[in-house]
Amino acid sequence: MTKSVDHLISERAKSRVSSHFTSAPSEAPPSGFKPHPKPLLLSYGTPNNGFFPIDSLDINLVHYPFEHQDKKEARGESLKRLAASSSNSASNGKNGKAESYDNSVEVVRHTQDPSIVDLSTGLQYANVEGHKPLLQFTKDFIKRTHNPAHDQWESILTTGASDGLNKACDAVLNPGDVVLIEEFTFLPFVRFSDHAQAIPVPVKIDFSNESNGIDLGYLRELLDNWHDLKPNLPKPKALYTIATGQNPTGYTQTVEFRKQVYELAEKHDFIIIEDDPYGYLTLPKYQHQRPTNDSVKSDVTIDDYIANHLTPSYLELDTTGRVIRVETFSKLFAPGLRLGFIIAHASIIKAIKNYGEVVNRGASGLSQLAVNNVVYGKLGGVDGWIGWILKMRQRYSLRKDLLLHTIYQSEAYKQGLVDVIDPKAGMFVTFKIKFLDARPENEIVAKMKQALWKVINFGVAVVPGSNMAVDSKFSAARSNFFRLCYAPANDDAEIVESGKRLTDAILDFYNNGEKF
Amino acid sequence: MTKSVDHLISERAKSRVSSHFTSAPSEAPPSGFKPHPKPLLLSYGTPNNGFFPIDSLDINLVHYPFEHQDKKEARGESLKRLAASSSNSASNGKNGKAESYDNSVEVVRHTQDPSIVDLSTGLQYANVEGHKPLLQFTKDFIKRTHNPAHDQWESILTTGASDGLNKACDAVLNPGDVVLIEEFTFLPFVRFSDHAQAIPVPVKIDFSNESNGIDLGYLRELLDNWHDLKPNLPKPKALYTIATGQNPTGYTQTVEFRKQVYELAEKHDFIIIEDDPYGYLTLPKYQHQRPTNDSVKSDVTIDDYIANHLTPSYLELDTTGRVIRVETFSKLFAPGLRLGFIIAHASIIKAIKNYGEVVNRGASGLSQLAVNNVVYGKLGGVDGWIGWILKMRQRYSLRKDLLLHTIYQSEAYKQGLVDVIDPKAGMFVTFKIKFLDARPENEIVAKMKQALWKVINFGVAVVPGSNMAVDSKFSAARSNFFRLCYAPANDDAEIVESGKRLTDAILDFYNNGEKF
């Protein structure tokens, strides 16, 4: 049993009510009234599905990430062989298409299967919360992976993590409220807290290699002495944290660490907004050798993955209902879906729903049916979906290790000029420039700019840490890093080449007296 | 040349800036810097499209609305014939699927065709504004149908009309600003103006049969004597109008009427927010006979449709850049796409874009690619899309006329107890209860509730006008109507049956002394 969390909901959110002009009369019917057994509708402005131009959809899937590249290579090989033995190889396939798929999902206009969203439903107006089977999927998935410690939680779909974070801010932050944020973070969050007219306060990150991200000593000190340290600010209403594979640093908080943060949240009565866009991509530790596809091949079972690889969410510690977990399908399925979900206390979800009726009328039904019907129509539900995640995770592991291997082999690393943090999850690596002597903050910032130009000149795009600082002055002394992301590369060769260019650039930067 | 519209943009919108942490350095590069010819990306957190599980999509279309019903009937017939001549008819089609489509669009992972949104683009992160070809389509479509009178207009995609309206409110309404609204309206708009902390003021509707909707004399009087009539309110900042096939009344403003309203907007310096979700569904006048599929068959050419059937938008009169036109694909393609667009002055579109970066990160790419690739890959672009609209329009005309015919043939109509307004566009009909003598306002409201229960009891759902009143007290005297919508019915027979039940219910209501 949780306490009420009403005092944690913003006044703005509390003031909204939900109603619709097509609702049935609210007063009691007159005597003698009985509902008609088969009422007809002249009420809703919903076009009948017969007006929809799409009659059915075939969604053709790959069995594993990058299968299409393997197929292309295989086709290329067989074409080459054909070309060697015959001159008539061009007729193979019309317009490069006409591929036959053994792994398709057909979406029809009407079906009675309750686990499927058909076109007559998916293309129609729908609840802001989301279509039933997909909403149920998000709950079943959370129960399987991060079962909440209280039982008053609910789920709602969003149009992605950004939408989820903006809605979380709206639900809990009053104008003038303070929100604590990891000092380097997914910076658009500040846009959302600004929109709620809240005040962002950065929390130091511990940059040691065995760090959990947040500098816990700093956070405790700050909270316990808030009125002395921040005399003009109210005590924090919320903490925003990317607790697994933090963006940009890649750090992951252990469960023991989370328990201590959660204790602080209880003691000081603040909300935890847990953003977890890629935490399911857990990554084994680098093995000190050049990785191959085989060396990171997953022999992890789903149960083993959940029990021993996945870091528990704050939800699993949350007895009060003060955790808002923001998820997205962007990294595990595709960003263009604009689809995600939020798990939180039912009162908070209700506030988010009422806001959703203002700022967007729910996620695309087409996106919803694509995910839902792939998951239920092909992968086989929650565990099938986790199976897909394990394949993603395997590929990301390989990429991470390839990038780390390239850096570890570099001259710059061997000379101790750079360091790198091996992430336990996600898609980001902190790449530190290890200035060999202490120096003033403003010099670090200036040198990092020179280093960035060098890196760009050598042909790699990276994100300087300072670009992601909530308060670049506050964080200047800890800005000596670039965020590296191994997600966008087209293939493994690009990752290796990127790592080489990057470390060559930094070596050149040092050889040139820490200048461009 | 338009004047600047900056004074019409809200302070809230002006205060927002757009920036992203992955942007390149803004300062000048150091001397000796040259951009790399083939830079690699370790920057963006965008998963490579090789991580997307969908490899291709087949979108199977109908040639005209409700074709699937005709096909089903035809299949039913041929199955019956088969059953009569043979006992082996069940093998015809496996699981009811395996239909062969001659009207499909294939969406592949990669294409070089600039008019197509492929999967590697459509499933990826994208600009808030929308994918290029679809954004270009919205502009070409507007140029063809409602060419704006000034040349500083732009387009931006939305997640549907509601999102568009909320964004329009955010862009122009400051807290305390007044927005004029047709007294009966799409009521969620008030939620959006509330969200902008604006003050809604209803404008009387003229309920005569040849009305243009808004009571122009009332509006002019109100504006010219604003400070006397509304001493505590600032002059209006905006007018919200559904000018074609108004919701709920069905009225359409003629172009001459719009010119007079636009003159008032110029004189009193307010914005016109033109909401037009179904105005393309222009409807011929009822022909005083039972309509058949043939009698409303469209022999209208696209040029004729645009020149003589489509009512000009306020955009076409707008020399100042004060018109915000909100469109949606919900009624013409499908609501579940959550896809629409806004046409307005470039400064207003920029404000809307900055807001879009807060409240949702653009429309679903899957929805965008579905519409774009159907339009460009199958229908043949703008005129092909208008061709589809003409087919929709033909079907809606038939439905409208069937409903009107049923009402005109009813005993209640013949006895002069009810009246109905023949709409020139859209999907709504005003169904008036003609109380035969004058009566106090509160009695009208009470009687309409009794009539509603009767209608529900007879098995039809309708929307009472009072449910859609901005201020139900202000509009009580004009609340003696139901909104009828012929869009949701499954077939023509349902429309006829609904009309019968409705008119029978009202006859019974009168026969029972205007009581349930």
UniProtKB/TrEMBL annotation, chains A, B:
**Compositionally biased region (Low complexity):** 83-95
Give the originating organism: Lodderomyces beijingensis
Its name, as the record gives it, is Aminotransferase class I/classII large domain-containing protein
User: Where are the annotated segments for Disordered?
Assistant: 1-34, 73-101
The cofactors required by this protein are:
pyridoxal 5'-phosphate
Question: Does the entry feature the keyword Transferase, yes or no?
Answer: yes
Show the Pfam families listed in the entry: Aminotran_1_2
Show the ranges annotated as biased composition (Polar residues). 16-25
What PANTHER family does the entry give?
AMINOTRANSFERASE, AROMATIC AMINO ACID AMINOTRANSFERASE 2
Return the SUPFAM superfamilies for the record.
PLP-dependent transferases (SSF53383)
Ranges of Basic and acidic residues composition bias in the record: 1-14
Keyword tags: Aminotransferase, Pyridoxal phosphate, Transferase
All copies of the Aminotransferase class I/classII large domain together span 105-495
Q: Which family does it belong to?
A: Belongs to the class-I pyridoxal-phosphate-dependent aminotransferase family.
Q: Which InterPro entries match?
A: Aminotransferase_I/II_large, Class-I_PLP-dep_aminotransf, PyrdxlP-dep_Trfase, PyrdxlP-dep_Trfase_major
